[in-house]
Design a protein that fits this description.
alpha+beta, 3-stranded antiparallel β-sheet, two-stranded antiparallel ribbon, 5 strands
């Protein structure tokens, strides 16, 4: 997930150009969301872990074990990297075979899964994340507030959607539903397939 240099958490590389997700997610949003919000979380994580028992820990271990401000910032680094890595240029279509098989085994069909994931995102009150997780040969959707993520519960994530306002406000203002509609057009199902256990 994260490469570290001299025990410092570093920015995950953005796997596409800032304008690659347009018109669904704008260059301006990526520039602020990735270039400023994520960068701030990285900077805060490094400051907060300095001189503590977490100083030399990998990011995922910090997320699993830390609390308070360190957890919030480290988890936001993890969540954002997972999110950005799961998107790519439009036109990736529907899930790849193994992912689709698990979706159908759990939800019946892709459209039902998409509706449930979308509903989780539209009904989550306040800021947070919607996660698709693998549990053996089944999948699970869960909406979590703030910086929470499945690592705390030892679950295996496949896909996440950021529903903090900074993920969409520059593009769709308060219309979270429109952002979610756009999100489906840039999910990189190849990445999701590669995350399967």
């Amino acid at each position: 997930m994260k490469k570290e240099k001299n025990n410092q958490i570093t920015m995950c590389p953005l796997p596409y150009a800032e304008d690659a997700l347009e018109p669904h997610i704008s260059k301006k949003t990526i520039r602020y969301h990735y270039g400023k919000h994520l960068a701030t979380y990285v900077e805060n994580t490094n400051k907060l872990k300095a001189g503590t028992e977490f100083e030399d820990m990998p990011l995922e271990d910090i997320v699993k074990k830390a609390t308070g401000g360190l957890f919030n910032n480290a988890a936001q680094v993890y969540n954002h990297c997972f999110y950005f890595e799961g998107l790519n240029a439009p036109g990736k279509g529907k899930p790849m075979p193994k992912t689709l098989e698990l979706i159908e085994a759990t939800f019946g069909d892709f459209e039902t899964f998409k509706e449930k994931f979308t509903q989780a995102g539209t009904t989550l009150f306040g800021s947070g994340w919607v996660w698709l997780m693998q549990k053996g040969k089944k999948l699970e959707i869960i909406a979590l507030p703030n910086a929470e993520n499945p690592l705390k519960e030892k679950k295996h994530p496949l896909l996440t959607m950021d529903v903090w306002e900074h993920a969409y406000y520059l593009d769709t203002q308060n219309a979270r539903a429109k952002y979610i509609e756009n999100f489906w057009k840039v999910v990189d199902w190849k990445v999701v397939e590669g995350r399967l256990k």
